[in-house]
Amino acid sequence: MANPKGKSSADAPHGVPNVHHPELFQPIEIGNCEIANRIVMAPMNVLMSSGNTGLVNDQILAYYAARARGGTGLIISECVLGTRLASRFPYTTNLHLFNGTHLSGLEELSETVHAFGSKIFIQLSIGFGRQGHNPDHEPPPAPSAIPYVTDPTMLPNVVTKNVAKEVSWFLNPETPFASRPDMPREMTREEIKSEIAEYGHSCRLAVVAGFDGLEIHAPHGYLEHQFLSPRSNKRTDEYGGSLENRMRFVLECYGAARAAVGNAIPIGIRLSGDEHMPEGIHHDELKTVVKTLGQRGIDYVHLSDGSYEALKYFFPEKDGTMLEPAESFKSVLPEGVPVICVSIHDPAASAAAIREGRIDMVSLGRQMLAEPDYANKVRAGEKFNKCSRCCDCLLRTARGLTVRCSTNPNLGRERFMPEYHRQARTQQKQRVLRRLPEIPVPGLEDLPEIAAALRNSGTVPEQEQMVKIAEALRKTGAASTSNN
Predict the structure, then answer these.
(1) What is the pLDDT of residue 225?
(2) Active-site entry in 64, 148, 222, 239
(3) pLDDT of 410 higher than 50
(4) Do 134 and 217 share a domain, yes or no?
(5) Whether pLDDT at 76 is above 80
(6) Catalytic annotation on 63?
(7) Following DSSP, what letter does each residue of 50-77 receive, concatenated?
(8) What is the C-alpha separation between 307 and 320, in angstroms, rounded?
(9) What is the CATH number of the domain that holds 403?
(10) Global pTM value
């Protein structure tokens, strides 16, 4: 529930005097996870991993540690590719989570963020679809064989000016930031089913890796958005045509995630408020998608806007452009399901939006790159380093380069700063094996007596527990179907 434990939004957090913009510093619950404040770090492709190996490194750990140390209540990870097929079509390089080789690094990431006092959700993607890029120009899998089109008039003004200065690079199809993508291929029905099943398995791995929640990646023209949009989805089977059919892929992805993890961690979704393109999916239909997800138990909705084809909405040039669609989404969700709105850099404006009940939390992308201590400085009423919305960060990643910031000289260099390194522990003994939350076991619902015995771990003798577990393994086939 979104109710901050009965506190008035005008009250300062308990024991912390003179808090500026107190609405931003009230705790909030998303599913079973309590977040200390309403400030969220938005997920961003920052290209700090190398070679699309999918593995966490020291720079990634320090980058997230900086924002956690800066007082951010919730960090949502960069987009993590959740299937083998998806990993072949990254932005240019992304983290991965689809087998056990990815677990140790991602658990180190969740541990690091926790050590600096924040919660972390993983944004897990089933793929970029036609917006994915394979270094060998392999056709990316998509709902239909329709490439995206880059229109300079739909870019942020600062990006358009840069394109005008470097037009030969922009137009050459062999450059990393080519305006002409590879022609996608249409996914088969069997491929769709297989990808959704693998995605569910990866969601379960996210629990093992210690993430506090999971965000389904469906905004900005990526694969799930492509299925939703009549502009990119021309299928004639059960995944195309009517809105009911076009939303089937998203609903099945959510269903696979929920079946995999149950209520062990909260599951939310990120969606664009509008595609802003001819024949695209617009707000009224997306509002229906949100309402349907709310009815099926989604734990939160995280708003964004636009797509690669409508980048100026994806990267707005002023505050508050997404407030109205966020409020609209909130109106069709069950009470207590939070809505996160992105890109309100002015803390007075985001605090007012929360106070007025228009949104529940504010997420920050570019502003969090410019100022890792944003939350702490806002709380204290101190001057913070403001994002200039110059989009140099975006333009660097479009070239395949690690993100940098014109106003924060240390972005991308956090690994060299000792304050973002975890300290050695001084305790001689401590528990190092985290107890995993309960997840659904396929087939166990048909064995109620065994299920009851397994859940009564505090009253059933250990030896009897082991007998019941062995019996459950035999009857559900779990011993022979592990695929990690």
Answers:
(1) 98
(2) 222
(3) yes
(4) yes
(5) yes
(6) no
(7) STT-----HHHHHHHHHHHHTT-SEEEE
(8) 18
(9) 3.20.20.70
(10) 0.91
